[in-house]
Amino acid sequence: MAAKSLARFVVSRISTPASNKAFLNNPNIKFYSVQKNFEFIKTHKAGARNNVGVITLNRPKALNALCNGLMQEVADALDVFEKDNDVGAIIITGSEKAFAAGADIKEMQNNTYSQCVRGNFLAHWNRVSESVKPVIAAVNGYALGGGCELAMMCDIIYAGENAKFGQPEILIGTIPGAGGTQRLTRVVGKSKAMEMVLTGDQVPAHEAEKMGLVSKVFPVEKLMDETVKLAEKIAKNSHLVNGMCKESVNTAYETTLREGLHFEKRMFHGTFATKDRKEGMTAFIEKRAPNFTNE
Questions:
Q1: pTM for this prediction
Q2: Catalytic annotation on 103?
Q3: Distance in angstroms between the alpha carbons of the first and the last residue of the chain
């Protein structure tokens, strides 16, 4: 039986979207299989240089509700892609109907407080935010509850025009538990975050872009093409320096300005210990493309 997600409580009816055929049949997008079998997700590598890892949430009957098994598989897939020296950026996406329509409510319905505390419930969901490599969320359809939180764990969010974001946990007697009250507040500010988490209202893609929650919005059929282009552009950089830059931005997000400036300066100094920094500056002076070795 399909799991009952939060979206099934909030959304009574969802229309069938267009298919992904335009993306799958695009001759400019190359796919490479990843040798690992999963139950709740699919993985492959995309891009002309075989340098983009793609994780597709795959529980269509449950609107990609985030069960423990799915989130563990996402963590496992991240492990695989992080160990792959060719992969420079990772995309997490769902279907055109739902990126992820919430956590699996049926799975957690009978949890007790003591069970949650003793088991540190949802702790392993943080794996996405801890990825060393840049992670991009490509969001079509519903990103509600845990789905919105999963998107916010990523470094960049691209959205299709049909995307809707929300934290409707209040409607079923609980609160967000995987960053919905924390990351959302830092991104959109206290007033808007309060409005979203206290009403459970959904925010359409273009409004989410104006709020700063989403970086860019595209037509549904172009979302994955544009996300792969972004990932390829990022993956062309030094993977080592990408990680350093990502860590520096996250430090700004999580600490004071004084601490962040100090961290940034030391990280900047640290790039001078890398071969890629020297190669990048040398290539610039010599007016040629750099050949980064991630060292």
A1: 0.85
A2: yes
A3: 49
